[in-house]
Design goal:
The complex is a heterodimer. Chain A is α/β, with parallel strands linked by helices. Chain A contains 7 helices and 12 strands. Chain A has helices at about 60-70, 90-100, 115-120, 130-145, 160-175, 190-210, 220-225, and strands spanning about 5-10, 15-30, 35-45, 50-55, 75-80, 85, 100-105, 180-185, 210-215, 225-230, 235-240, 245. Chain B has helices at about 5-10, 15-50, 75-85, 135, 160-165, 225-230, 245-255, 265-275, 280-310, 310-320, 325-355, 375-400, 405-409; strands spanning about 55-60, 90, 95, 95-110, 120-130, 140-145, 155, 195, 200-210, 220, 235-240, 260-265, 360, 365-370. Chain B has 2 domains: about 5-50 and about 280-409, no CATH class; about 75-260, no CATH class. Classes of the chains: A alpha/beta, B alpha+beta. The interface of A and B includes residues 96, 97, 108 and 113 of A.
Chain lengths: ~250, ~400
């Protein structure tokens, strides 16, 4: 069993931690079996950092991402993000928090097929009090950022996989959330499209300074992040810096 | 609560035309059956209400309050009443007091030359009247021919009565080719057509209408001829137009003439009470409609369930974006309700085209199904209810899953 040890990204003692996990544990039952995908995880991530989560299947990386997104709740431990204690928030409060603070990018894009690219990107803004004109301006800007301003009226079925993922990224950033979470964002894309998406995420990080946490199996994609967290059996196995330096617990 | 765009719900309807057709079709069936049962109840209610006038008093035999057909009054009752009560309506010097016999008799349209003979008679309602009847039943209007002459074997026929025997008065005797199911009778009916009543041939001397009333399905003949035919000396009832008299005056009359063994009530009250008598039948019709429509409802709900279940991942995505479960549920309910109400509207159009006015026979005559605003509102309400309640299982299926599980689809 890995002992509970706090690992801070980017550096121990950094007081600007944006995400803080303390003995974070997730347990669920599958039939008679008790499964613990995440066990006593201690971790701090500073604001504005890009982090990739890597590890074999079942290592707990998607579970951690779900907890960070507030779409799953921990069984034990604490999870603070941007000063919010997610463990103490109600379901509705979590929904409101997600709308305000988190942008999520899915592996399969998860666009709504009956809505156009514009309408898909507009969805998160419907949760914010703003005029139709302001919404249109922000959606237009987000689509321009991902290079799809000319595809605003297209439905998902009229777009390529790479274009769909860029629309999904536009949807994730349109409300300007401080935290971007991506679950295998390049998993369903060809190499060229994957590079384009990774370039886009890098640009967003530089220009907006948002914190990005990305689950990936792709070492090339992971290497783009400032830090690579390697999980194994629900615990943090090691941390690698983008420059190749490695910290082993 | 921030809702999803209305367009989202509407456009989702087009995702699977087959499922949309199943949901809408199920709702159409349910709405049509609800509409039919309400149209039945409303038609009966309206017919009875239109038949009985509040300005008329009805005298019937004591103990026969529920059926004028079982009532018996002495033949002299009308004359005694007219002579005893002041203030009854008088028209052209004639007091508006009408002695009547109401009786159901087997009747059959006599075969015309070259046509097959009818093999079975149907029960029809006959009203024996004197000319004063037209003073107390202003709803009745002669539209062709004349009233039965004294001493002649003649009857006046209404469209509903003719239809009851399998005929069609709307096209006239010379041109009618309608047939009654199972008899092969050429059922054209017009002036001069023979109708066998309890084995005795009568000629149709006139055609009358009393739209929307039970009388629209009766044969009328002269009172003395019907009394002779049925070998009775008594009358079923006496109808009197109150004029300046009050019902209390009639009550006082019945109380003072115990020998007549009669009771008085407003004609409208009698038919209202008759409506209550038919309440179990209305309930039976409604329950039958509900039972039959359950199949359609389940089909629609099942299709809706399948449609929503295929979108579990999408629902998970919307929750992940920050939409509350309530907002998503509202959107799904809107989607389901729009589909079901569309089915209801289709049912209303079908009902207006095919059901409205269809004659239904009952023991006191016949009435037309009334596809009125109440029936249409009931059908739309049934569709809306199906839309809301039918969406519940599917919504539960979509929203009960934890978001991570929903995102996995």
């Amino acid at each position: 069993m890995t002992p509970a040890t706090t690992r801070t990204v980017p550096a121990a003692g950094d007081t600007r931690s944006f995400i803080r996990c303390t003995r974070l544990t997730k347990v669920y039952r599958k039939g008679d079996q008790e499964i613990t995908p995440l066990r006593d995880l201690d971790l701090e991530i500073a604001r504005g950092t890009t982090v990739s989560l890597m590890g074999p299947s079942g290592s707990g990386k998607t579970t951690l991402l779900n907890l960070l997104a507030g779409i799953d709740t921990a069984t034990a431990g604490e999870l603070w993000i941007g000063g919010n204690d997610l463990a103490r928030m109600s379901r509705d409060a979590l929904a409101a928090w997600r709308a305000r603070e988190v942008g999520i990018i899915f592996q399969s894009y998860n666009l709504v097929p009956v809505l156009t690219a514009f309408e898909n990107v507009e969805l998160p803004l419907l949760l914010h009090p703003m005029s139709r004109r302001e919404r249109a301006a922000r959606v237009g800007h987000a689509l321009a950022t991902v290079g799809l301003a000319d595809r605003a009226g297209h439905f998902p079925r009229q777009l390529s996989g790479g274009q769909e993922q860029r629309v999904a990224i536009a949807r994730a950033i349109v409300a300007d959330p401080p935290l971007l979470l991506a679950d295998e964002p390049t998993g369903d894309l060809d190499r060229a499209s994957a590079e384009m998406v990774l370039d886009l995420l890098g640009t967003l990080h530089r220009e907006r300074g948002c914190t990005i946490v990305m689950v990936t199996h792709d070492p090339t994609a992971a290497a783009r992040a400032q830090f690579q967290l390697h999980l194994d059996k629900g615990s943090l196995a090691r941390i690698e810096r983008g420059d190749g330096a490695e910290r082993v617990p | 609560m921030r809702l999803l765009p209305f367009d989202y719900a509407i456009r989702n309807l087009g995702r699977s035309p087959r499922r949309l057709a199943l949901v809408t079709g199920g709702s159409t069936l349910v709405s049509l059956l609800v509409l039919g049962s309400v149209a039945f109840a409303r038609g009966l209610e309206r017919s009875l209400a239109a038949t009985g006038l509040e300005t008329n008093a009805l005298l019937i035999g004591s103990g026969s309050e529920e059926s004028v057909e079982r009532s018996e009054l002495p033949a002299s009752t009308a004359d005694v009443l007219a002579a005893s009560v002041d203030g009854l309506a008088v028209v052209a010097g004639i007091t508006a007091v009408s002695p009547e016999i109401h009786v159901a008799l087997p009747a059959v349209l006599a075969p015309r030359a070259g046509a097959a003979a009818a093999t079975d008679a149907a029960p029809a309602l006959f009203r024996g009247i004197e000319p004063q009847a037209f003073l107390v039943h202003p709803q009745v209007r002669l539209v062709a021919g004349r009233w039965p002459a004294p001493g002649a074997d003649e009857i006046a026929a209404s469209p509903g009565a003719i239809a009851r025997l399998g005929g069609d008065a709307s096209r006239g005797a010379a041109t009618v080719t309608g047939t009654r199911t199972g008899t092969g009778t050429d059922a054209g009916v017009g002036i001069g057509t023979q109708v066998e009543v309890a084995g005795t041939p009568f000629a149709v001397s006139g055609l009358f209408e009393a739209p929307g009333t039970a009388m629209h399905a009766e044969f009328w003949m002269r009172l003395d001829r019907l009394a002779q035919l049925t070998q009775r000396t008594t009358r079923s009832c006496v109808v009197a137009a109150l004029g300046d008299a009050e019902l209390d005056d009639i009550d006082a009359f019945t109380a003072s003439r115990l020998d007549l063994e009669s009771i008085a009530m407003r004609e409208s009250d009698y038919y209202a009470r008759l409506g209550e008598f038919f309440a179990p039948i209305r309930l039976l019709v409604f329950v039958t409609a509900v039972l039959i429509s359950t199949g359609g409802a389940l089909g629609g709900v099942n299709a809706m369930y399948a449609a929503f279940s295929s979108r579990v991942r999408e629902v998970g995505t919307l929750q992940a974006l920050g939409f509350s479960r309530a907002a998503i549920a509202v959107s799904l309910v809107i989607e389901s309700t729009v589909a079901c109400v569309a089915g209801s509207l289709l049912a209303c159009l079908l009902a207006l085209a095919a059901l409205d006015g269809i004659a239904i026979d009952f023991s006191m005559g016949s009435f037309g199904l009334a596809v009125d605003s109440t029936a249409i509102a009931s059908a739309i309400a049934a569709g809306a209810l199906l839309g809301v309640l039918g969406a519940v299982p599917a919504i539960a299926r979509c929203l009960v899953l934890p978001i991570p599980a929903a995102l996995r689809g």
